[in-house]
Structure formats: C-alpha cells, structure tokens
Design a protein that fits this description.
Blueprint lengths: L14 E7 L3 H14 L9 H4 L15 H4 L8 E6 L6 H8 L4 H4 L3 H5 L27 H19 L1 E8 L16 H9 L7 H11 L4 E3 L9 H9 L3 E3 L7 H14 L3 E11 L2 H6 L2 H19 L5 H4 L3 E8 L8 E9 L5 E9 L2 H21 L4 E2 L22 H15 L17
Parallel strand pairs: 1-2, 1-3, 3-4, 4-5, 5-10, 6-7
Antiparallel strand pairs: 6-8, 8-9
The structure holds nicotinamide-adenine-dinucleotide (NAD).
C-alpha cells in the first residue's frame, strides 16, 4: 500500500533554462547531445533520468515505469541553454575544438550550436593558472562581478522565456581552497567579496548569484564553491537545492563499484595505484599542481569512507592509495584510466586486479549534467532545499549535512536516489527484505 507521506510536486510547466558555467568539452557534449536526442538522431545513453526504470511495490506487482514517466521531470523539448566562458567560442566552435563529437552529431545542428554564445565570465587566472581568457567581466570588486552575474541570470530568463532555471558549474577545476572565516556566514561572505578577499573564488560568485536569483546550483568540479556554511545557509533560507562536488564518471565510478565488492567479501586491500592520461583542456588545467590538488583530494577520499579502516584495521588499516593525472595531448578527451589493485584473501595471500578503462570523459559526463539539471529542477519544485544528498550518485565527493560522512558506494547511492523518488511520489520504500514471498501467513 502506498505510504501517506510524499510531497506535492509542482508540475514542470514551460521551459527549463540550463545555465552552464563553462562552455568546454562537457557542456558542449551535453548540449549537442540533447539536441541530437530531440531530433531523433541519437539515444540519451548513460542518463538514468531518460533510460532508467524504477520498480514500485512488490516484485509480483510487475510495476516498473520509466523514471521520466514516474516523476514529473522537465522534458528534453523544454530545455534551453545559456553559458559563460572566458573563451569567446560559441558552442559549435567550442565543440569542434573539444574534439569529442563526430561531424555527424555536430554539422546537422551547427546553426543551433552557433547561436549559443558564452556570456563574459567572472574569471580570475589566479584560480585557474593554465587558462587565459578574453571574454571576461570587469569590476572593481568581486561583489560587482557577482551582481553582473545576477543581471545575466535575469536577462537569460527574460530572453529565453524560461519559467525556471538551474545552474551547473562545468567549468575548469580551480586551485585548492579550504573553508575559512570568509565562508562562515553570509555577512562575512559578502564583506569578503567587497574586500576582494582571495578566499572567494569565481565559482563561489556564480553560486552566490544563482542562489540570490532563486536558482538551484550544482557543482560538477571538485572546487569548494557551494560546500561552505555561508552558501549552505543561504540555500536553506531561500529554500533552494544545492549539491556537488565533482561529476563521478570514469575511474572513480569504477572505484566506488569495486571497493564495496572487496569490502562486502571481507577481502583485504594493500594498495591501489590509479593513473590517468588525458589530453583535453581539463587535462591541461589539471597539470597545474594547485588545480590537481583539488582533484586529488576529491579522488582520494572515496576509499577511506568506503573501506572504514577504523572498523577493519586488519583489512584496510594500511592501504597505499595513489592517484596521478598526466596531461598527454595525443589522447584528447579519450582518457585512459589505469588501476593496479593489490588485494589479499584467505590467510593473507596476495592477488592483483588490473583495470584499464579506455573511456571518453565528456561522453560519460554529459548524461550526468542532464540528470542533474532535471533532478535539481525537480527538487526545487518538490520544495527540497539545501544539500541534496540523494543525488550523491552523480558526485565523487558528495556534500552532506555537517557531521555526516558521505556515502560513496554507487549502489547505495542508487538505492538512495530511487527511494527518494518513491518517497516523493508517496510510494513504498524498497527494503529488499522479501521474507513475505517465503513465509506465508
Ligand atoms: N569529463 C569528466 O569526466 C569530468 C568528471 C568530473 C569533473 N569534471 C570537471 O568538469 C569540468 C569541465 O570539464 P571539461 O572537460 O568540459 O573542461 P574544459 O576545459 O573543456 O571546459 C571548461 C571550461 O570552463 C571555462 N572556465 C574556466 N573558468 C571559468 C569561469 N570562471 N567561468 C566560466 N567558465 C570558466 C574554460 O574556459 C573552459 O572552456 C572540469 O572542472 C572537470 O574537472 C569532468
């Protein structure tokens, strides 16, 4: 029987504007992909919201609608796009330079892509050392820049006729920052913007602008951005969903599948060496040690939380975990993520596993951008505010409420996501107990 709770979800009326900070490989692959799907020339493979189903009730009921038919999501036909980038290329030129999609997916939609021109960015080279941009905003203070971003948001809304907006950071990874006094309250944050405090990175200006304009914000890079008390409080006060950090795509996605399997079988882990070679602009930016540090923290965190060395010191108390990213131009966006995993079993005998993932970074990230845009919009219409932990499924370093450790196991994250959808729609949670199939009353 359906549970009584659930949420009133406002219908997805009108257009949804997806605002992207960054119009690089991921953003253009996402936009071009959506347009191809809309024209019937490709399938939205990798998107749970578009291809996934959700089981409802008992297995014997055989109810498994598509997610997009079960919850009221915006339709792909209703999406409109806008972006900021310090590089002035329109979406067509940016996509060509990124070299991810073949002409068959770009040429027929060239006019559509050319019409998406990036707005001047709030950009500061101190935070992304390997980039220089000409399409940038000028302002005396960081607060001026944030106000200009707010004006852009209002203009996009008017120009596009969008009823609702969401913003996603798909821009370069910024240098490593930790939360400090400037991030503790809105007052301190606003003062820091006025004083051009280095603690305020450009990505934070976008997040602040979004929240001040009632726009949900998701962070696809590992930067600190919205993972600070001042902006979390702002999101809660204004009843807006936020989330991050760092799209979980290739190597880390595999790590959060394999590590839970070792732990489930109580197999020990001695070491995990992960290396990557990639040659896109993201790789070039991550070649800077300060941007790499931000990414490294994000990639390293997952094992510690999954394996719980405190609880299993004999199995996971002495793991050597190393992550490297090497910029190697010939590979372009086609990254190779190589893992050597040293595990041990019964009586301590060692074994090895090698994983060589010849992946395509932006092909894996684009459907995540789509799902996040649709689910953050859903969250807002359902009145969910603050950190959306149920969307951890999509992130390498999921934000959580203070005092909670993040859940990294991909399948726990999936269960959490689907149970949240069931809960929103007043359907029963699935516990996988199933004893009733065997014990007749
Ligand atoms: N592709 C993946 O699998 C994946 C996974 C996790 C995270 N990410 C992250 O997603 C982000 C985008 O990746 P990508 O491959 O598209 O990189 P990219 O370099 O192709 O695109 C990023 C774009 O952001 C722009 N940019 C930099 N600073 C900006 C600012 N302040 N405002 C607006 N735009 C700005 C750059 O000019 C560039 O065009 C990166 O941070 C990357 O680390 C990607």
């Amino acid at each position: 029987m359906a549970q009584q709770y659930g949420r009133d979800v406002a219908p997805a009326k009108g257009k949804l504007g997806v605002m992207l900070a960054g119009l690089g490989a991921v953003s253009t692959t996402f936009i071009a992909g959506v347009e191809n799907v809309r024209r019937g020339t490709a399938l939205p493979i990798g998107s749970l919201s578009q291809m996934g189903t959700i089981r409802l009730g008992k297995r014997t009921e055989k109810r498994a609608p598509k997610i997009k038919e079960f919850v009221p999501l915006a339709r792909l036909e209703d999406l409109v796009f806008a972006a900021w980038d310090p590089i002035p290329d329109d979406a067509y030129s940016a996509a060509k330079k990124a070299g991810v999609l073949e002409p068959q997916h770009l040429e027929p939609i060239a006019d559509f892509l050319k019409a998406i021109k990036p707005m001047p960015a709030a950009f500061d080279q101190n935070y992304v050392k390997r980039l220089t941009g000409t399409n940038v905003k000028r302002g005396k203070t960081k607060r001026d820049l944030a106000e200009q971003l707010r004006q852009d948001i209002r203009d996009v809304k008017k120009r596009s006729g969008a009823d609702r907006l969401v913003m996603i950071w798909a821009a370069s990874t910024e240098v490593f920052l930790t939360a400090g006094p400037a991030h503790q309250s809105l007052q301190a944050f606003e003062r820091a913007m006025e004083e051009n405090d280095p603690a305020i990175a450009p990505s934070m200006l976008y997040a602040y602008a979004a929240l001040m304009e009632n726009v949900p914000f998701a962070n696809g890079a590992p930067n600190l951005t919205v993972d600070v008390p001042a902006l979390q409080r702002l999101a809660e006060d204004r009843r807006l969903p936020i989330g991050g950090k760092d799209f979980k795509t290739g190597q880390t996605m595999m790590k959060t599948v394999l590590a839970p399997a070792f732990k489930a079988r109580m197999l020990g882990l001695a070491g995990w060496y992960s290396t990557n070679i990639l040659g896109n602009r993201d790789g070039e930016v991550l070649d800077d040690p300060e941007s790499f540090k931000t990414k490294e923290e994000s990639k390293l965190g997952v094992l510690e939380y999954i394996l719980q060395p405190d609880q299993y010191p004999e199995l996971y108390g002495n793991v050597f975990h190393k992550v490297r990213i090497n910029y190697y131009p010939p590979r372009g966006d086609n990254k190779e993520g190589w893992d050597n995993i040293d595990i041990f079993g019964w009586l301590g005998y060692p074994m090895q596993i090698k994983v060589d993932f010849l992946c395509r970074d932006s092909i894996l990230a684009a459907p995540i951008v789509l799902d996040l845009a649709l689910f953050f919009d859903l969250a807002q219409r359902a009145g969910l505010s603050g950190i959306q932990e149920w969307l951890s499924f999509y992130f390498k370093s999921p934000q959580t409420a203070p005092g909670l450790y993040p859940e990294h196991d991909l399948f726990i994250q999936q269960t959490k996501l689907k149970n949240t959808l069931r809960w929103l729609m007043g359907e029963e949670q699935i516990t996988h107990l199933g004893i009733e199939y065997y014990e007749k009353a």
